[in-house]
Design brief:
Shape: extended
Oligomer: single chain
Strand content: 5-15%
Number of helices: 7
């Protein structure tokens, strides 16, 4: 459907461009013929300029129409992904709830296990809804962070311990390398909540593209007037042609239907938006000679380190 619509837009543009160029030829022929009879050559210049502007306007309209169509397609894919993501936990919740209702005399351990599954799936749905809302707020420019100096050593001490347990539960090792100057009290202007969201999304993305038994590495170091937070995995990597797209809203790496295409494609776009609100930058790197990808967040230091 998208391809057919895009083809129609291009066809209309080509026809309009051909008509415009035909008009230009007729105009030139007319001016040249009348110029010998006392016509004004300035008409040729004025008419040519106007027709050139018409061609540029047509080209701009085509580009805008194609861009709007691409965005609409991404939204359609997003709705499809969100619907698919919600179906799975909803089905699990319904199944376990029905089973509990039918087995009123179930053993306490069985009931606890079923209730734990229901709670876990409900949390999964809540996380998806939160991601959609967060992405929408960032897209609309309604997300304003209260930036304060955050002691990275103190933040990472608690965060990495909790994150390591969650990552290892998924069969992947989490290795952290925090530089001495960061441990010495480096601070960044940030929001702890936003910083946690950024780290959660970066690590979740790295784990998702890592095989069981793989390793995710987190490196934190001072880089001039900024602190660099690096998350690296040994997964499939990122093709060079997609490096500039992975922070786009709704974008997902890989072919449609591939097993690694999970989620709604919002995690890294949320990272990009939050880092931007914290006056920082985020970039992605992937080396063809070795597996994996590396994402680097840089945040400004909060004054001089104590």
């Amino acid at each position: 459907m998208h391809t057919r619509r895009a083809s129609q837009l291009v066809t209309v543009y080509v026809l309009a461009l051909a008509a415009t160029l035909g008009l230009l030829v007729v105009w030139v022929a007319y001016v040249v013929r009348t110029a010998g009879e006392g016509g004004d050559w300035r008409l040729l210049a004025v008419g040519s300029v106007l027709l050139v502007f018409l061609v540029l306007a047509l080209t701009y309209q085509l580009a805008e129409a194609l861009a709007a169509r691409r965005y609409a397609l991404k939204q359609e894919e997003f709705l499809s992904h969100v619907t698919h993501e919600m179906k799975s936990p909803l089905a699990a919740i319904k199944l376990h709830a029905q089973t509990l209702a039918q087995q009123e005399d179930a053993e306490p351990e069985v009931r606890r296990r079923f209730l734990a599954t229901i709670e876990r799936q409900a949390d999964r749905m809540a996380a998806l809804v939160d991601a959609v809302l967060e992405s929408s707020r960032l897209q609309a420019g309604r997300r304003r962070l209260d930036l304060v100096p955050v002691d990275l050593a103190a933040f990472l001490a608690g965060y990495l311990e909790e994150a390591r347990r969650q990552v290892e539960a998924r069969g992947v090792a989490l290795v952290a390398e925090v530089a001495a100057e960061v441990e010495g009290g480096a601070r960044v202007f940030a929001s702890e909540e936003a910083l946690r969201q950024v780290m959660d999304n970066l690590i979740d993305n790295a784990v998702r593209f890592s095989a069981r038994g793989g390793e995710v590495r987190v490196r934190v170091a001072v880089r001039g007037e900024r602190v660099g937070i690096e998350v690296e995995d040994d997964g499939i990597g990122i093709p060079k042609g997609e490096l500039s797209k992975i922070f786009d809203r709704f974008y997902q790496l890989g072919r449609e239907g591939a097993p690694l295409r999970q989620g709604a494609g919002l995690g890294l776009s949320i990272v990009s938006g939050l880092v931007r609100e914290m006056r920082g930058t985020v970039r992605a790197f992937s080396q063809e000679e070795r597996p994996g990808a590396r994402l680097l967040v840089e945040l400004p230091l909060a004054g001089e380190r104590p």
